[in-house]
Amino acid sequence: MTEELGLVLEHAENGKVCVDMLNNSEVGYYRAVLMDVRMPVMTGLEATEAIRRLDRPDSSLPIIAMTADAFSDDIKRCLDSGMNAHIAKPIDIKEVGRLLDKFINQKR
Q1: Which of 23, 36, 48, 101 makes an SS bond possible with 81, Cβ 3.0 to 4.6 Å?
Q2: What local confidence, expressed as pLDDT, does residue 105 receive?
Q3: Angle at 18 between CA 7 and CA 13, to 5 degrees
C-alpha cells in the first residue's frame, strides 16, 4: 500500500524492535511511524511512550495508530500515549497518505 504513496516502509515485528530501530538510526532517518497497537513484546502504546521519552531531536516524529481497535476509548488511549492520529482497519490508503502529508509537511 505504501508504494502507491511513493514511500519506503521498514517493518518491525514488535514494539521493542520499532523503538530500537528508531533509537539506532541517524537522526531524521525516519519521517513517521505507522504503529500497530497490538504487538507482542511491547505494544504500540508502550512503544509510542518509549519513543517519546528518547533523548533525540526526532522523538516527536509523527506516529499514526493503525488498528482494529476503533472505539472512542481506543482512540483516546492512542492519543494519550503520544500518537498523533488513529486510523481504523481496514486501512484507507488515501487517509494514510493525507495524514502523513499533514504531519510530515507541518514539520518542515
Answers
A1: 48
A2: 81
A3: 90
pTM of the model: 0.90
Q: Give me the phi and psi of 101, to 5 degrees please.
A: -60, -45
From the list 73, 89, 24, 70, the residue with the least C-alpha distance to 51 is: 24
Q: Which amino acid is at 31?
A: R
- Between CA 81 and CA 84 the distance in angstroms is 9
Give the three cell numbers for residue 33: 511511524
Q: What is the 3-state secondary structure (H, E, C) of 40-68?
A: CCCCHHHHHHHHHHCCCCCCCCCEEEEEC
All three cell numbers of 81: 500515549
pLDDT tens-digit readout, 36-59 = 999 999 999 999 999 999 999 999
Q: Which CATH superfamily is domain 2-103 in?
A: Response regulator (3.40.50.2300)
Tell me the C-alpha distance between 18 and 12, whole Å: 5
